Design the sequence.
């Protein structure tokens, strides 16, 4: 995993070398600087560089595309935070709260353009292909965000529709990051597609793990309130599966927990957890997650690349699945 | 001018052939369809095609870039309308009012991606060059919008800063449309730059004409309330020039008109018009406009292209300057 750490350092170094402080108007550029300095795991750009390395590419020829992905990702956060009315991001005020919605809209727009600018610095030989993939992915991410917002006002959502939403909102950007890295290393079409599918399936598994950790994570390491999704009636895999399976008294009890105005938060979490236990929701979610995880590994296995390099991806996937928070 | 009319028909035909009705989620795509169906003069994409023709290009090889420009322009309107809290656009409810701000943000984001998608369909030989120009222009347009918003909260703004703002917010997109058309027709660097400068200067002249028409347009043809900018204390060239020049009693009278809560609209317009007359504001604005207009024509003159084709640009520029509304 040292390689990933090195890439993360490189990405942070490159991001901090962009000179936003001297650009005018400041109202447009300081929020961009702020949002990029909030940190984040930089997993997408690091995986782009790692996929590039997997197929024998050089980091210096893929770094601009990696920056494009990270800036694009942060652009989506800026706009999502407005739409979700989110006050905090990485324990700091969101741009939308620290400045205002207009500034978050326009700074976000500029970040989007900048992401295309970085992408456009890539080898012209591959530009058309990675640009098309990037655009398609950007649209899918927007569609995922819209579906997520639509789901909030629906009574319930099928598991298939939920999985489609998290694939669009979360997984395809991870997948495209890997594929862009592969394309820039002149990987074969088959290999580029396998690494894309590895990322897409891993991305869905990752999000399902997130859903599971909300209720079953290690409270000491979780860093958020355990059961936060339950308290907010968030339509996670756990809740949707429970709604699908609960019958008779369990259904009544679940409906009560979801609609009662008198239940305190702690009791609500306890009672919902009990319903989930009766329906084996955790196990079912883990089974679903493992389907995606195993599919990811199968695609990785099909990639034609040195075994010791593929091992890094496997270890990375394992680490994501074995996290407690 | 028949050529421009033909291009506008072509652009509208192509725009209406994009199938948004069957795309999901509908909340994302119906607002895009709506905003593109609101109409608009389609001047930017028509000029792109005209510039392409000027240098011997074929419309079918420039049409995708033209659609990119028009969709990008409409994306900026979607986001600007949120920021400006504008209820109407082309006499119809804005997307932001008809749906909501979140939908206008996200539909706008998708339109932006789509504009890049259309651009990316252009001849790969020129893709890198037109993409870089497009990106730079997109950033300038955002900077112009931010400056425009900043100006609202400032007591006054220098004429230089105002001209810089309208150049960014309005003129560079017109200029880039022309230059992209030229690049796609393999025009020389010099010619592409001259047609860019023609568009930029004409764009500034056009905006100054807009400022003048607010107070001095033909009321029967203007279609808006005469003096709407005056009533709103909008920092147009006219007002900024008056603030720069007014001294002593005229300054007091102007300050009174701008701050009085008792003046009715009609009286306010009359009294401000009288101040403008004393300071010869209309003439000064026309002089400034003519500087840009003449500069535009000088750049057109320097373009190495058939005279009869350049004549269409000249006639078009003249028509823009001689409009009464």
Sequence:
């Amino acid at each position: 995993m040292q390689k990933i750490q090195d890439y993360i350092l490189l990405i942070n170094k490159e991001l901090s070398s962009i000179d936003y402080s001297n650009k005018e108007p400041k109202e447009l550029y300081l929020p961009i600087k702020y949002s990029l300095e909030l940190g984040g795991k930089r997993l997408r750009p690091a995986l782009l560089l790692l996929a590039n390395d997997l197929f024998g590419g050089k980091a210096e020829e893929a770094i601009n595309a990696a920056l494009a992905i990270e800036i694009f990702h942060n652009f989506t956060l800026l706009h999502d935070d407005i739409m979700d009315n989110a006050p905090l991001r990485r324990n700091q005020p969101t741009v939308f709260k620290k400045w205002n919605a207009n500034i978050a809209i326009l700074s976000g727009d500029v970040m989007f353009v900048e992401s295309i600018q970085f992408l456009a610095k890539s080898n012209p030989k591959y530009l058309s292909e990675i640009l098309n993939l990037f655009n398609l992915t950007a649209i899918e991410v927007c569609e995922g965000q819209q579906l997520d917002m639509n789901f909030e006002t629906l009574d319930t959502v099928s598991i298939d529709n939920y999985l489609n939403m998290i694939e669009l909102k979360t997984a395809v950007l991870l997948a495209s990051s890997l594929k862009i890295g592969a394309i820039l290393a002149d990987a074969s079409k088959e290999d580029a597609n396998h690494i894309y599918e590895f990322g897409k399936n891993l991305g869905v598994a990752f999000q399902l793990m997130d859903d599971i950790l909300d209720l079953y994570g290690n409270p000491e390491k979780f860093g958020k309130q355990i059961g936060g999704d339950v308290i907010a009636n968030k339509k996670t895999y756990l809740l949707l599966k429970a709604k699908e399976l609960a019958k008779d008294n369990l259904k009544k009890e679940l409906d009560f927990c979801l609609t009662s105005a008198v239940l305190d938060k702690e009791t609500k979490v306890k009672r919902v957890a009990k319903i989930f236990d009766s329906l084996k929701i955790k196990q079912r979610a883990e089974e679903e997650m493992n389907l995606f995880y195993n599919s990811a590994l199968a695609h990785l296995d099909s990639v034609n690349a040195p075994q010791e390099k593929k091992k890094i991806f496997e270890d990375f996937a394992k680490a994501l699945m074995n996290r407690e928070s």
Remarks:
- Chain B has two domains: 1-187, 188-325.
- The interface with chain A takes residues 24-25, 27-28, 79, 82-83, 101-102, 105-106, 109-110, 112-114, 116-117, 120, 124, 127-128, 131-132, 135, 138-139, 142-143, 145-147, 149-150 of chain B (CB under 8 Å).
- Residues 124-152 of chain B form the longest helix (29 residues).
- The mean pLDDT of chain B is 95.
